[in-house]
Amino acid sequence: MAQFKAQFPDNFYWGGATAANQIEGAFDEDGKGLSAADFVEYIPKEQRTKDNAMEITSEQIRKTLSGESDARHPKREGIDFYHRYKEDIALLAEMGFTAFRLSIHWSRIFPNGYDEKPNEAGLQFYDNVLDELLKHNIEPVVTLSHYETPYGLTEKYNGWAGRETVDHFVRYAETVFTRYKDKVTYWITFNEINMITISPFTGGGIVSDKEENPIQAKYQGLHHQFIASSLATKKLHEIIPNGKMGCMLARMSTYPNTPNPEDVLKAQQDNRQNLFFTDVHVRGEYPEYMTRYFIENDITISKETGDDEILKQHPVDYITISYYMSSLSSVSPEGEVTAGNLNNSLKNPYLESSDWGWQIDPIGLRVALNDMYDRYQLPIFIVENGLGAYDKVEEDGSIHDDYRISYLSKHIAQMKEAIGDGVDLMGYLAWGPIDLVSMSTSEMSKRYGFVYVDKDDEGNGDLARSRKDSFFWYKKVIESNGEVL
After folding, report:
1. Is residue 337 part of a domain?
2. Whether the Cβ atoms of residue 146 and residue 103 lie closer than 8 Å to each other
3. Which of 67, 127, 144, 367 lies 20 to 30 Å from 272, alpha-carbon distance?
4. Is residue 485 part of a domain?
5. pLDDT tens across 113-170, in order?
């Protein structure tokens, strides 16, 4: 039998990914306004429940703005990338990064979201960051909205629940496209757009307790994001003719728990609920299976004249995903449950779990890539994948994170196999190449980086950067174009 050898293409992008709200800090400097992320509180593990992990109530907002709250808001601090970006980018360049995903904090550009004129200091900051990346021959991949809805839009329209937010987003997009047209080719509209239906405040600046029908508000806000994405894609192609717009999905592959046909059907339905978002972005229309879902859940999407045409005429150019785990579906979910980033699932007995209970499934990444490429036939870019883990600093300052190397190497090996299967894979951007504030828990102890940042969950530390063992490993991976794992 002939031996087949898969390999990464020569133009494959290697690098890492971050979000402005998790790294920048400087939340009130140089004219920046408040965003949804600035209200997220740090909740110690012993006090944490599923209900208080990410959602914010009207009362929490009131207490924060009035000064009554004594809660810490770690995303306001980040890891001070705002002042240390040159040092941090130099470390990425030392590893050999060819691409780096960052987001623009919308409220740095339009402090309230609805301002008539952009904030020049904010625009200049991203000019500086992009110039620094290009100086090191690192391709920027820029997300327009990564859980950073300006609070002004929440206050005025309840975020994306209001149709008015569409126009403000498009103006913001047009502003940054025009400003950075000679510096950025690859763009992404909304990070993990499916988040708005799971955590509407995080994903869309929507305060659920302000809504009579919160489920309706989530899907209406999602429709507004779909329209805004298509209109931004139209603007991108006008302003940057060679520009490429991607959508972004938190891919949650789901397996049936048993061969029971009811479990198989349930897994198919759950997968469709996840792929619905890319179906709209790529195919330019709502899939028929969602018509039934909306009827059965008493959801009515309010559309303006021309909305369907907007979606159809301006689909995305490529697909980006985050991938961290797979899940199990069952019509009778009895058994041990494992914690997950965005959902809980029955525990898969064939998989190991991370320190945070996320089940580790490298082969699931190959399955997800094959399924998505079969479905869409569009280039796919993995723009998040990584292991959140506790790291121990040894007496000599070294950090031996073999567990991270093992996790990443297994996932990269499966990516290579997916390329061999025929998937058009553009690149791999590991999540959090420099330790950052966790999105879901606002912890620092949940570390992803190749670079350690001296800061703990309570905000203590001098923010010094140091290289972990994985730093030197990833450098060899990039140098060898994925051959040395």
Report:
1. yes
2. yes
3. 144
4. no
5. 999 999 999 999 999 999 999 999 999 999 999 999 999 999 999 999 999 999 999 9
Arithmetic mean of pLDDT, 250-260:
94
Residue that has been written with the tokens 């009579």 in this structure? 212
| Domains of the chain: total | 1
**pLDDT above 70: residue 339:** no
Of 379, 456, 263, nearest to 9 (Cα)?
379
> Could you report the per-residue pLDDT of 194-210, keeping only the tens digit for each?
999 999 999 999 999 99
Contact yes or no for 377/318 (Cβ under 8 A): no
- Percent of the chain that is helix, strand, coil (3-state, to 5): 45, 15, 40
Active site residue 262: no
What angle in degrees, to the nearest 10, is found between the helix axes of 288-296 and 261-283? 110
- The answer to whether residue 334 scores a pLDDT higher than 80 is no
* CATH number, domain with residue 89: 3.20.20.80
The mean pLDDT of 320-339, rounded to a whole number, is 83
Q: What are phi and psi of 256, to 5 degrees?
A: -70, 140
Given the residues 288, 384, 395, 443, select the one marked as catalytic: 384
Closest by Cα among 250, 186, 240, 238 to 379? 186
Query: Does residue 218 fall inside a structural domain?
Result: yes
pLDDT value for 234: 98
Mean pLDDT of 445-456: 97
Concatenated DSSP letters for 36-86?
A: GGGGPPP--GGG--TTTSS---HHHHHHHHHT------GGGTTT-HHHHHH
Question: Is residue 376 domain-resident?
Answer: yes
Point out the catalytic residue in the list 24, 148, 192, 443. 192
Domain carrying residue 309? 13-479
